[in-house]
Amino acid sequence: MKFTFGKKDKLKSQKLIERLFLEGKSVSAYPLRLVYLQTNFDDGSTLKTGVSVSKRNFKSAVHRNRIKRLLRESYRLNKRLYFNNITTSYALMILYIGKDKPDYDTVNTKMKTVLSSFLEKISRD
Fold first, then answer.
1. pLDDT tens-digit map of 11-65
2. Fold of 7-113
3. What residue ranges do the domains of the chain occupy?
4. What share of the chain is helix, strand, coil (3-state, %, to 5)?
5. How many angstroms separate the CA atoms of 114 and 119, rounded?
6. pLDDT band for position 1 (50/70/90)?
């Protein structure tokens, strides 16, 4: 698994996103929340991930886009450490639920926390 976050890794299917929020389970590490759903993909990838920031908390698109860039970068750098030997396919959505603008260090430490708790939770299931 490389340090990339390409087109194949992005969660884009509207039907799958709706199913993810209806049937998915979640793990939280404030200010991040990870919603996940075990599923199968046609292209053979094991993980597809999306990021989202609430328009209610951040009115300015500039601030929302900055937070989404931070989330994607933190996920991109950490996914190889956590998902290197995963065999089942999952759809993930990472939500920023905080109300203040974060810096990269905060996002990165919370991303590590939420990914490790996700792996812990799926190993118990």
1. 999 999 999 999 999 999 999 999 999 999 988 889 999 999 999 999 999 999 9
2. Ribosomal Protein S5; domain 2 (3.30.230)
3. 7-113
4. 45, 20, 35
5. 9
6. low
